[in-house]
């Protein structure tokens, strides 16, 4: 078999790709830009395919056979469920801390989304009739 030449190099790190499409997709790894947003929960993504897969999780289109025995949350992958289960016993490293309330997160994007809730940037149209707390 003939091997494809990787003529398209990233000017930031030197990694080479066989075509411009893969080079451009790689360049996103050097950026904090996340141009694709889930229309359901507003989580942002660098790649459209990752966002599309995520969106399907909202309508149950993704098979999730792995269920957390602590809280009932389900997952499509066993490793993701195992990682989640560790959150119940505090074993998950959460280095990102909200400066407003001290809540900690394992991912920077989730902390950033949370921080926006303190200044009203996150729309929360539903209000609990029991305690008055707003949620989306």
From TrEMBL:
It is found in: Nucleus. SMART domains: ZnF_C2H2 (SM00355). GO terms for molecular function: DNA binding; DNA-binding transcription factor activity, RNA polymerase II-specific; zinc ion binding. Keywords: DNA-binding, Metal-binding, Nucleus, Repeat, Transcription, Transcription regulation, Zinc, Zinc-finger. GO terms for cellular component: nucleus. Its main location: nucleus. GO terms for biological process: positive regulation of DNA-templated transcription. Residues 8-35, 36-63, 66-93, 96-123 form the C2H2-type domain. Pfam families: zf-C2H2 (PF00096), zf-C2H2_4 (PF13894). It comes from the Eukaryota. This is Myc-associated zinc finger protein. It comes from Antrostomus carolinensis.
